[in-house]
Fold each of these.
Amino acid sequence: MKKVLVLCGGFSKERDISMVTGRACAAALKDAGYDTYTIDVDRTLPEKLRQINPDVCFNALHGPYGEDGSVQGLLNIMGIPYTHSGVGTSSIAMDKIKTKAIARQHGIHVVEDQLIDYATYKSMEMPFPYVLKPVNDGSSIATYIFRTPDAEKLSEQAWTYNTHAMMERYIKGRELTVTVFMNKPVTVTEIIPSTDHQFYNFQAKYDTDGSLHSLPADISDKAFNTCMENALTMHELLGCRGISRSDFILDENTGNIFFLEINTQPGMTPTSLVPEQLAWAGISFTQLVSLLVDEATIDVL
C-alpha cells in the first residue's frame, strides 16, 4: 500500500484554507485505499519527512513556502515525489507580474499593471478605477478595488504587502475560471459573487453562500474557447504538472478576455472551483486526488 503524506497548514496567510484543503484531500485518499498521514507543516518538516518516509507527498499547501517552489525544492533534494508543479513553475506562477509578462509575450491579453511600493502609492496620482493586490499571495487576500477619485487610499498600517504591491486597471466584467487537469482544459465557470461582495474576494471564495458558480459559463463560443485555449497555453508555457486553474475577466464593454493569473495549488475545499469542475466532467474527488498521486514526481535536473 502506497504511503501518502498530506502537507498542509504552513506559514502563509492562507494556512487556514490549506488546513481545510488538506483534511478534505486526506479523507479522499483514505477512501481510495492509501496509507495516509497528515502534518501541519512547520520548520521540523525535514525531520518529519525522514520519520514518516512517505512514498509520495500530497502538496495541499497554499501561499508562500508551499506554493512558491520552497517545499518543492526540499522534496527534490530528499528525493520524495510530490503532487502538483515543480520548483521553477511554482516560483514563476506565484509571481503575478512575471506570469502576466509571459502571457503578454505570447499574445494573451492581460490587464495593464504597475509594481509600486508604499511611498510611490501615497504620492502618485492614481488612474481610477484601479485594483491593488499582492504580487505573490492567493485567495484574493489584501485585494482592493478603488472605483472613484474620492476613494481614500490605504493607510501605512493597512499596507500589508511585503514591500511592493501590484496595481492593475480595473475592468468591469464577468469573472471566469478554467481548470486544466492532466493537460486538458475542463470547462469555463462563471463566478457570480453574492450581493454582499464586490468581487470574488476571500469571503466570497470560502463562505458557503459567498458566490454562485455557473458552469459551463453562459458566454459566447468565442469567449469560451479563448478561455479554454489560453488556460491550456499558460499551463503548458509554465510547465505545470497535474493541475492548474487560470482566472480571466470578460470585459463587459469590449467583449475582450483578459488573463489575470494562474494557480498551481488551487483550493480543494467544499466550496472550491476545481472539484466542482471535475465533478461536472465526471471525475469524483477521490479519483481527482488519486490521479494526482499517480502523477507525483520530482524535478529532473
Amino acid sequence: LREKISNLYEYAEGDNIEKRLCHNDCYDPNFLTDNNNIYLIDWEYSGNADPASDMGTFICCSDYTVDEAMEVLKIYFGRDLTLVEKCHYIAYIAISSYYWFIWALYKTSLGEDVGNYLDLWYEYADTYGNVALDLYKNKK
C-alpha cells in the first residue's frame, strides 16, 4: 500500500496544482451550523497544502462509494470535473486515507480507540488508490 500511495503522490504532484491554505481535517465534527451559517473549527492541522487534501479527508471520513464520491466532487465544483481534476481529487482521497490510516495506527498503538476508521481508511487508500492509478495510466 505504501508503494502504491507513493506512486500516486508522484502522479498527483505532476498535476502542478498550486498549494494554498487548507484545513487538512475537514470532516463532519469540525463543521458547526447555526441558523444559516456554517463554521469550520479545529484548525490545528491547517497549513499550506494541496487543496484536494480537504476534499480527500472529507470523503475518506464518510462512507461513500466511488460513484457517490464523484457526485460529491461534482457538487463541490458545481460542474463536471476535468480529467486532470478527476484524477487529482480521486488520488487525494487515497492519499488522505493513507495519511489517516497511519495516524490511526499510531493512535491504536497508544491504546486509543479509533473505531472502524482504521479499516475504512485502509480500504479507501487501497480502493481509491487503484481507481486513481487507473485514471492516471489511461489519461489521454
Amino acid sequence: MDPETKQMHDILTKLKGVDKTTKIVAERAERDIDLNVAINQKITKDSVSVQNYRIDIVLQKFGDKQKRFYNICEDERILHKDIALFETAMGIVKNLMLNKHKKVEDLLKSDLDYNNALYEVYMYKTKAKKAINEDIMIAKMSAAQNRLHSAKQQILQKL
C-alpha cells in the first residue's frame, strides 16, 4: 500500500472509531433527554457540530505517532483545545449547553489527567524498549496505565 493510501486508510479507520462512539452516545440518548438534545448534531470528516458548538478533530504528533485531539468552538471562537478523549469533548459540549460550568471544569481536569497518564505510558514503554532500567520502567508504565484507566473512569462517571 503506498503511503498516501495508507494515510487515507488510517484516517478512515479513526473516523470509524468516532462513528462507533457516536452510535454509543445515540443509544444513551434514548434514556437521557439532555443527551438527546446533544445528539442532534452534524458530522463531517473533521468535526461534529451540536447547536452552536463545534468539536474539531485535530491530528497531532504524540510521541512518534499521530493522535486525535479535539478543540471545542462556539461559533468560530475556540473555547477549549487539545481535549484527549471524544467522550470528554461531547460531555463538555453537553454541559456548556446546560450552563454547568463546574462540570466542564471537572471534565477538563480529568481529561488532562488522562492525557498526562497516556503520555507517561508512552514514555515508560519507550524507555523499557530501549532497556534503560527495564524493570523499573515497566513498573512505572503499569502505574501510569492504572492512572490512565482511573482518569477515563472518572470522565465516564461525570458524563
